[in-house]
Amino acid sequence: MPEYIHQHENWTNFTWQNAAVSAILGEVRLKQGMILGQIFSLGFSSKEEKNLEILTTDVLKSSEIEGEKLDYEQVRSSVARRLGIETAGLVPSPRNVEGVVEMTLDATQNYQRPLTEERLLGWHAALFPTGYSGIGKISVGKYRTEEVQVVSGAMGKEKVHYEAVAAKDVAMEMDRFLSWFNDEKIAMDDVLRSAIAHFWFVTIHPFDDGNGRITRAISDMLLARSERSSERFYSMSKQILAQRNDYYEALKKAQHGGSDITEWIVWYMGTLKKALEETEDTIQNVLMKTSFWEKHKDIGINERQRKMINLLLDGFQEKLTSSKWAKMTKCSDDTALRDIDDLIIKGILCKSEAGGRSTNYTLII
User: Is the CA virtual torsion 178, 184, 185, 191 positive or negative?
Assistant: First the structure.
């Protein structure tokens, strides 16, 4: 009896229970449509900033899933430069950061282009510009020639979780994968194709290292294709990181099973739905802030007041007192009280019923 899915004959003839998949796919598509509708309500600068934020997050979180923590400012600067976005405080980025950003942007900005072996090998080379992964030398820009196992545990007591496709079969399996990926005659929703491509590619595990990051770039490419948009407003990688243990468990279960991958598809789409819901909340917040500042655009507000109002708009959890205002804006208690009283007169803040030292203030939305 085969232990892994790829040991079955014709293992890529995947099947799924249409009723279960169609239900969650419908929910995901509805969320995508709602978010894209909300995005149109944002001004250009807000859309640009959100796109920059999500692409930066996607690069950071996809690397973090693999245990590699990149510098936020270096990633953000690299993304901004490549998108031609003028933003303050850009810093230089090392080659490894430039490489993962280059791969991510090629996948999402050029989502309509075919996915070829040459393109994939280029992504792999970009991820490992020195030819090393950590202190170990790896084959860069080419498929692996060694067998791969996913193991855990101390040396001598290793536990094998998964054994990838045999090295001698990688090229053949990748040809089959790329042929399916680029076949426009296959009538399949691109969100569903994204779930299947993710599982298929990571099961082949064609490279010595970097398979996870390339897998998620492929997923993002198909999600961009599903929306016909190179702008990204949610991060699948961020959500996968938040559910990392469940992610590995879902993959492991499917890789040890047969051709029916319903559970994997439903898990993937459920995770995607959560990513969309989180973005929906943040967009609502952006729209609320935009509406607030539009309403008060003709009212004189100093920089201390603007800073504190934005903090409250972003969901400041503590009770706002004049002493906290003074501390956070680095001003005197008297100045803080004048700032607050001015905003009360202008109808922006209101005072709580509690008096004395318990006096705190809330924003009038």
Answer: positive
